[in-house]
Amino acid sequence: SVSPLDVEFLEDIAGENWEGDCAVYAHNSGSLSRLTNTGKLIVSLKTLECEIFTISPIRVFNQNLHFAPIGLLDMYNSGGAIEAINCTANTSGCVVKIEARGCGKLGAYSNFKPELCKVDTRESEFSYNHGNNMLTVHLPMDCSFRDIEIVY
User: Fold this and answer.
1) Cα torsion angle, 67, 73, 79, 81, sign
2) In a designed cystine with 126, which of 46, 67, 80, 117 is the match (CB 3.0 to 4.6 A)?
3) Mind listing the UniProt keywords for this protein, alphabetically (predicted)?
4) What is the Cα–Cα distance from 118 to 134, expressed in whole angstroms?
5) Exposed (0-12), middle (13-18) or buried (19+): which is 32, by Cβ within 10 Å?
6) Are 103 and 1 in contact (CB under 8 A)?
7) Are 36 and 23 in contact (CB under 8 A)?
8) What is the DSSP letter of 79?
9) Any idea where the domains of the chain sit in the sequence?
10) Does 53 score more than 90 pLDDT?
11) Exposed/middle/buried for 97, CB within 10 Å: 0-12, 13-18, 19+?
12) Could you tell me which of 22, 5, 151, 25 has the C-alpha nearest to residue 87?
């Protein structure tokens, strides 16, 4: 099984706005799950199979937006692409800002579909899966440092 309890110092890493839940992304299967900090995801592997998991604390922004960056979905150390994350909120909504490096598909857990996503101030293509709350933002292929804005 896999659990957020498997991650040392998770509370220190999670920082403010964390209520204890985590997003768990399985790289080979592409599945995304939400677990409490004491929850467990049962894993069953066949002979010679493997799975790599990214566990990301779900932060609560603007009282009702639950968000957790996963990172670059095509990289095993997906979270290594995330440099910083914050949120600015007002009465009309909020904007999650992510500083990231790399290219390809940037994944995140989000309990709402955003209105739009921007990469380096330009509107960017994104997809949202209502079934598992997976948000995917497409980053250009020149693999440089990026400022990403997710507008709700």
Assistant:
1) negative
2) 117
3) Carbohydrate metabolism
4) 17
5) buried
6) no
7) no
8) G
9) 4-151
10) yes
11) middle
12) 151
Q: What is the side-by-side strand order in the sheet with 93-101? A: 82-90, 93-101, 145-151, 116-119, 122-124
Mean pLDDT, the chain, rounded, equals 94
Q: Which two tokens stand for residue 44?
A: 């069953």
pLDDT tens by residue, 91-115? 888 999 999 999 999 999 999 999 9
The tokens for 49 are 């199979």
Structure tokens at 113: 């579909």
Name the β-bridge partners of 82: 100
Which of the four pLDDT bands, split at 50, 70 and 90, describes residue 31?
Answer: very high
